[in-house]
Protein backbone atom coordinates (compact mmCIF):
# COMPACT_ATOMS: atom_id res chain seq x y z
CA UNK A 1 0.00 0.00 0.00
CA UNK A 2 1.32 3.44 -0.95
CA UNK A 3 1.36 5.88 1.97
CA UNK A 4 0.75 9.58 1.32
CA UNK A 5 1.56 12.45 3.67
CA UNK A 6 -0.14 15.79 3.07
CA UNK A 7 1.22 18.93 4.72
CA UNK A 8 -1.08 21.82 5.57
CA UNK A 9 -3.82 19.21 5.84
CA UNK A 10 -6.17 21.37 7.90
CA UNK A 11 -5.83 24.48 5.72
CA UNK A 12 -8.39 25.59 3.13
CA UNK A 13 -6.70 23.79 0.25
CA UNK A 14 -5.14 20.94 2.21
CA UNK A 15 -8.40 19.88 3.80
CA UNK A 16 -10.01 19.50 0.37
CA UNK A 17 -7.00 17.60 -0.97
CA UNK A 18 -7.28 15.20 1.97
CA UNK A 19 -10.97 14.53 1.34
CA UNK A 20 -10.37 13.99 -2.38
CA UNK A 21 -7.59 11.55 -1.60
CA UNK A 22 -9.78 9.69 0.90
CA UNK A 23 -12.16 9.04 -1.99
CA UNK A 24 -9.32 7.95 -4.26
CA UNK A 25 -7.14 5.75 -2.03
CA UNK A 26 -8.88 5.48 1.34
CA UNK A 27 -8.18 7.01 4.74
CA UNK A 28 -5.78 4.25 5.79
CA UNK A 29 -3.34 5.31 3.06
CA UNK A 30 -3.17 8.90 4.28
CA UNK A 31 -1.22 10.77 6.90
CA UNK A 32 -2.03 14.39 7.70
CA UNK A 33 0.93 16.52 8.73
CA UNK A 34 -0.38 19.42 10.81
CA UNK A 35 1.12 22.02 13.09
CA UNK A 36 -1.24 21.19 15.97
CA UNK A 37 -2.46 17.57 15.89
CA UNK A 38 -4.81 18.22 18.82
CA UNK A 39 -6.87 20.45 16.52
CA UNK A 40 -7.18 17.74 13.87
CA UNK A 41 -9.39 15.28 15.74
CA UNK A 42 -11.91 15.32 12.89
CA UNK A 43 -9.27 13.70 10.69
CA UNK A 44 -8.58 11.06 13.32
CA UNK A 45 -12.30 10.34 13.45
CA UNK A 46 -12.11 9.52 9.74
CA UNK A 47 -9.31 7.07 10.34
CA UNK A 48 -6.61 9.41 9.06
CA UNK A 49 -3.40 9.40 11.07
CA UNK A 50 -2.16 12.86 12.08
CA UNK A 51 1.44 13.78 12.82
CA UNK A 52 3.04 16.99 13.99
CA UNK A 53 4.74 19.06 11.30
CA UNK A 54 7.00 22.05 11.86
CA UNK A 55 8.70 23.26 8.70
CA UNK A 56 11.35 25.02 10.77
CA UNK A 57 12.35 21.89 12.71
CA UNK A 58 14.09 19.19 10.64
CA UNK A 59 13.84 16.56 13.38
CA UNK A 60 10.08 17.06 13.71
CA UNK A 61 9.64 16.91 9.95
CA UNK A 62 11.80 13.79 9.71
CA UNK A 63 9.66 12.05 12.32
CA UNK A 64 6.49 13.16 10.51
CA UNK A 65 7.66 11.68 7.22
CA UNK A 66 8.61 8.24 8.49
CA UNK A 67 6.92 5.56 6.41
CA UNK A 68 5.88 8.01 3.70
CA UNK A 69 6.03 7.03 0.04
CA UNK A 70 4.67 10.24 -1.51
CA UNK A 71 4.72 13.70 0.07
CA UNK A 72 2.14 16.28 -1.01
CA UNK A 73 3.84 19.52 0.00
CA UNK A 74 1.52 22.46 0.56
CA UNK A 75 3.66 25.36 1.79
CA UNK A 76 2.96 27.73 4.65
CA UNK A 77 1.33 31.10 4.06
CA UNK A 78 4.21 33.29 5.19
CA UNK A 79 5.24 36.13 2.87
CA UNK A 80 8.83 35.91 4.13
CA UNK A 81 10.72 34.54 1.11
CA UNK A 82 13.74 33.38 3.11
CA UNK A 83 11.51 31.57 5.59
CA UNK A 84 9.62 29.84 2.77
CA UNK A 85 12.88 28.70 1.21
CA UNK A 86 14.17 27.54 4.59
CA UNK A 87 10.96 25.60 5.24
CA UNK A 88 11.28 23.90 1.86
CA UNK A 89 14.96 23.09 2.34
CA UNK A 90 14.21 21.66 5.78
CA UNK A 91 11.54 19.48 4.23
CA UNK A 92 13.94 18.22 1.56
CA UNK A 93 16.44 17.35 4.30
CA UNK A 94 13.71 15.58 6.27
CA UNK A 95 12.69 13.64 3.15
CA UNK A 96 16.25 12.43 2.73
CA UNK A 97 16.50 11.49 6.40
CA UNK A 98 13.21 9.58 6.24
CA UNK A 99 13.91 7.91 2.91
CA UNK A 100 11.11 9.65 1.01
CA UNK A 101 11.80 9.95 -2.71
CA UNK A 102 8.56 11.25 -4.24
CA UNK A 103 6.96 14.68 -3.87
CA UNK A 104 4.11 16.69 -5.35
CA UNK A 105 4.96 20.35 -4.85
CA UNK A 106 2.08 22.83 -4.76
CA UNK A 107 3.07 26.17 -6.24
CA UNK A 108 1.73 29.32 -7.89
CA UNK A 109 2.12 30.65 -11.40
CA UNK A 110 3.63 34.05 -10.50
CA UNK A 111 7.15 32.74 -11.00
CA UNK A 112 8.50 34.64 -14.03
CA UNK A 113 11.98 36.15 -13.79
CA UNK A 114 10.65 39.70 -14.06
CA UNK A 115 7.56 39.20 -11.91
CA UNK A 116 7.46 41.80 -9.10
CA UNK A 117 5.37 39.62 -6.77
CA UNK A 118 6.87 39.38 -3.30
CA UNK A 119 6.83 35.58 -3.48
CA UNK A 120 8.01 35.19 -7.08
CA UNK A 121 11.61 34.33 -6.05
CA UNK A 122 10.35 31.39 -4.00
CA UNK A 123 8.03 30.06 -6.68
CA UNK A 124 10.84 30.29 -9.23
CA UNK A 125 13.39 28.67 -6.92
CA UNK A 126 11.51 25.57 -5.82
CA UNK A 127 11.03 23.80 -9.20
CA UNK A 128 14.67 24.41 -10.11
CA UNK A 129 15.73 23.04 -6.75
CA UNK A 130 13.61 19.95 -7.30
CA UNK A 131 15.06 19.46 -10.78
CA UNK A 132 18.50 18.94 -9.26
CA UNK A 133 17.38 17.06 -6.16
CA UNK A 134 17.34 13.53 -7.53
CA UNK A 135 13.75 13.15 -6.34
CA UNK A 136 10.80 11.95 -8.36
CA UNK A 137 8.51 14.94 -8.45
CA UNK A 138 5.77 16.96 -10.06
CA UNK A 139 4.86 20.61 -9.60
CA UNK A 140 1.24 21.79 -9.63
CA UNK A 141 1.06 25.54 -10.09
CA UNK A 142 -2.24 27.17 -9.19
CA UNK A 143 -3.62 30.23 -10.88
CA UNK A 144 -5.59 32.72 -8.77
CA UNK A 145 -8.26 31.14 -6.63
CA UNK A 146 -11.77 32.04 -7.72
CA UNK A 147 -13.13 31.34 -4.23
CA UNK A 148 -12.28 34.70 -2.59
CA UNK A 149 -14.33 36.47 -5.25
CA UNK A 150 -17.57 35.21 -3.67
CA UNK A 151 -17.24 36.90 -0.25
CA UNK A 152 -15.72 39.89 -2.08
CA UNK A 153 -18.92 40.49 -4.07
CA UNK A 154 -20.76 42.59 -1.42
CA UNK A 155 -17.81 44.99 -1.29
CA UNK A 156 -17.70 45.13 -5.09
CA UNK A 157 -21.43 45.81 -5.24
CA UNK A 158 -20.94 48.69 -2.81
CA UNK A 159 -18.01 50.04 -4.82
CA UNK A 160 -19.82 49.29 -8.08
CA UNK A 161 -16.46 48.29 -9.52
CA UNK A 162 -13.48 45.96 -9.38
CA UNK A 163 -10.36 47.85 -8.35
CA UNK A 164 -7.49 45.44 -9.13
CA UNK A 165 -4.52 47.45 -10.47
CA UNK A 166 -4.04 45.36 -13.61
CA UNK A 167 -5.23 47.68 -16.38
CA UNK A 168 -6.31 45.91 -19.55
CA UNK A 169 -4.50 42.66 -18.71
CA UNK A 170 -6.43 39.44 -18.25
CA UNK A 171 -6.07 37.15 -15.23
CA UNK A 172 -6.83 33.44 -14.99
CA UNK A 173 -8.45 31.64 -12.08
CA UNK A 174 -9.16 28.15 -10.76
CA UNK A 175 -11.73 26.96 -8.22
CA UNK A 176 -10.10 25.63 -5.07
CA UNK A 177 -12.11 22.41 -5.39
CA UNK A 178 -10.69 21.93 -8.88
CA UNK A 179 -7.17 22.72 -7.72
CA UNK A 180 -7.46 20.15 -4.94
CA UNK A 181 -8.78 17.51 -7.34
CA UNK A 182 -5.85 18.09 -9.67
CA UNK A 183 -3.32 17.88 -6.84
CA UNK A 184 -4.87 14.71 -5.43
CA UNK A 185 -5.03 13.08 -8.85
CA UNK A 186 -1.38 13.85 -9.59
CA UNK A 187 -0.43 12.49 -6.17
CA UNK A 188 -2.12 9.11 -6.64
CA UNK A 189 -1.06 8.47 -10.25
CA UNK A 190 2.67 7.73 -10.65
CA UNK A 191 2.54 8.41 -14.38
CA UNK A 192 1.48 11.99 -13.62
CA UNK A 193 3.91 12.71 -10.81
CA UNK A 194 7.25 11.00 -11.14
CA UNK A 195 8.92 12.54 -14.18
CA UNK A 196 9.40 16.19 -13.28
CA UNK A 197 6.08 17.27 -14.75
CA UNK A 198 5.07 20.90 -14.25
CA UNK A 199 1.36 21.66 -14.47
CA UNK A 200 -0.44 25.00 -14.35
CA UNK A 201 -4.11 24.59 -13.49
CA UNK A 202 -6.45 27.26 -14.82
CA UNK A 203 -9.97 27.69 -16.05
CA UNK A 204 -10.39 27.53 -19.83
CA UNK A 205 -10.41 31.32 -20.15
CA UNK A 206 -8.64 34.32 -18.64
CA UNK A 207 -10.65 37.45 -17.89
CA UNK A 208 -10.02 41.12 -18.31
CA UNK A 209 -11.50 43.04 -15.43
CA UNK A 210 -14.18 44.49 -17.70
CA UNK A 211 -15.28 40.97 -18.64
CA UNK A 212 -15.07 39.71 -15.07
CA UNK A 213 -17.16 42.69 -13.96
CA UNK A 214 -19.75 41.87 -16.64
CA UNK A 215 -20.02 38.29 -15.34
CA UNK A 216 -20.40 39.57 -11.79
CA UNK A 217 -23.06 42.02 -12.91
CA UNK A 218 -25.03 39.20 -14.50
CA UNK A 219 -24.68 36.98 -11.42
CA UNK A 220 -25.56 39.61 -8.82
CA UNK A 221 -27.96 41.81 -10.76
CA UNK A 222 -25.89 44.79 -9.60
CA UNK A 223 -23.63 46.88 -11.81
CA UNK A 224 -19.98 46.04 -11.23
CA UNK A 225 -17.61 47.88 -13.56
CA UNK A 226 -13.89 48.42 -13.44
CA UNK A 227 -12.15 51.39 -11.83
CA UNK A 228 -8.57 50.37 -11.09
CA UNK A 229 -6.60 51.97 -8.31
CA UNK A 230 -2.82 52.21 -8.20
CA UNK A 231 -0.73 49.39 -6.76
CA UNK A 232 0.19 51.65 -3.82
CA UNK A 233 -3.46 52.53 -3.15
CA UNK A 234 -4.48 48.88 -3.37
CA UNK A 235 -1.86 48.05 -0.76
CA UNK A 236 -3.16 50.79 1.53
CA UNK A 237 -6.77 49.67 1.17
CA UNK A 238 -6.01 46.10 2.21
CA UNK A 239 -3.20 46.80 4.66
CA UNK A 240 -5.54 46.17 7.64
CA UNK A 241 -5.91 42.57 6.43
CA UNK A 242 -2.16 42.13 6.74
CA UNK A 243 -1.20 41.42 3.14
CA UNK A 244 -1.95 44.59 1.20
CA UNK A 245 1.58 45.20 -0.07
CA UNK A 246 2.05 41.56 -1.00
CA UNK A 247 -1.23 41.46 -2.93
CA UNK A 248 -0.36 44.75 -4.58
CA UNK A 249 2.95 43.34 -5.76
CA UNK A 250 1.16 40.29 -7.16
CA UNK A 251 -1.25 42.43 -9.15
CA UNK A 252 1.63 44.54 -10.39
CA UNK A 253 2.74 41.35 -12.10
CA UNK A 254 -0.81 40.92 -13.32
CA UNK A 255 -0.64 44.32 -15.00
CA UNK A 256 2.35 42.98 -16.97
CA UNK A 257 0.24 40.10 -18.21
CA UNK A 258 1.95 37.59 -15.92
CA UNK A 259 -1.22 36.27 -14.27
CA UNK A 260 -3.04 35.47 -17.48
CA UNK A 261 -1.78 32.00 -18.42
CA UNK A 262 -4.41 29.56 -19.68
CA UNK A 263 -3.66 25.87 -20.09
CA UNK A 264 -5.45 22.56 -20.62
CA UNK A 265 -3.40 20.96 -17.84
CA UNK A 266 -6.43 20.47 -15.59
CA UNK A 267 -8.14 18.39 -18.25
CA UNK A 268 -4.91 16.50 -18.91
CA UNK A 269 -4.84 15.53 -15.25
CA UNK A 270 -8.52 14.87 -14.56
CA UNK A 271 -10.05 14.15 -17.97
CA UNK A 272 -12.62 16.94 -17.65
CA UNK A 273 -12.84 20.69 -18.06
CA UNK A 274 -12.56 22.89 -14.96
CA UNK A 275 -15.55 24.80 -13.66
CA UNK A 276 -15.86 28.11 -15.52
CA UNK A 277 -16.18 31.46 -13.78
CA UNK A 278 -19.84 32.16 -14.58
CA UNK A 279 -20.97 28.77 -13.31
CA UNK A 280 -18.71 29.04 -10.27
CA UNK A 281 -20.11 32.39 -9.16
CA UNK A 282 -23.74 31.52 -9.93
CA UNK A 283 -23.50 28.33 -7.89
CA UNK A 284 -22.12 30.09 -4.81
CA UNK A 285 -23.49 33.63 -4.70
CA UNK A 286 -26.42 34.16 -2.37
CA UNK A 287 -28.45 37.26 -3.21
From TrEMBL:
InterPro entries reported in the protein's UniProt record: NAD(P)-bd_dom, NAD(P)-bd_dom_sf, NmrA-type_oxidoreductase
Looking at the Swiss-Prot or TrEMBL record, what is one Pfam family this protein matches?
Answer: NAD_binding_10
Q: Which residues form the NAD(P)-binding domain?
A: 8-142
Q: Which residues form the signal peptide?
A: none
Q: What is this protein called?
A: NAD(P)-binding domain-containing protein
Organism, as annotated: Secundilactobacillus paracollinoides
Amino acid sequence: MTTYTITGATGHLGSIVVQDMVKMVGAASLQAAVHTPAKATALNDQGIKTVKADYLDVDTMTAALQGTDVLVYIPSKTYDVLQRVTEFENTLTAMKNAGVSQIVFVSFYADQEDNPSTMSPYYAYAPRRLAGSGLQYAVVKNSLYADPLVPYLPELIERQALIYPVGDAAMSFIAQDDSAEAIATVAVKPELRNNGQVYTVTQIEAYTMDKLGAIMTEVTGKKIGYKPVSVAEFGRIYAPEGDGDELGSMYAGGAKGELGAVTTDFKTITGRDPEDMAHFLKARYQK
